[in-house]
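haha ok so turns out i had the wrong file open the whole time. this is the CORRECT one, sorry everyone. sequence first:
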Amino acid sequence: MADEERMDGEVVEESGFAEGGQTESSALSSGPEAPSQVKGSVKIADEVIGTIAGEILRTFKGVRGTNVGLIGGLKFGKRPFAEGVRVEVEEGGSPSVKVDLFVNVKYGLRIPDVAWELQESVKKGLEELTGYRVSEVNVFVQGLFFKEEELKPSTAYEARESGGEPPRSDSDA
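then structure:
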């Protein structure tokens, strides 16, 4: 694609940037006849931020979220939204997020390395998906677990839905 001259005489370079470093679309809207920009704000609910952090934690290998506990869940300004996750959003010019993660780590893994990788994953994921700055990701290692366990259906309905046999009681025998 060669350099193009638009109707208003401004040259748009091949890179898609107009002279002065603006993208073509921003250069188009920056003229004197440009419509006013939409005013307002976007606020992402704490529940959404907690859910995102919980999903990152849930899919992180070698770590399981734990219950934040009754007292931990009652701390002012922080509420648990997913197992092992508590978030606090500080509003202001640019919102920032503090995240507390309560986890068990698989035995045999180096805990500081796992915690650091988890912090980085949660920080990166939240910043990418929300645009908010993540100021803190605190990891509280509550315990260890020794092997990955598959979740087993706990009711007859869940067993039927998964194609397995319903659990039997002693009176069925």
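Residues 1-31 form one domain.
again sry for the mixup
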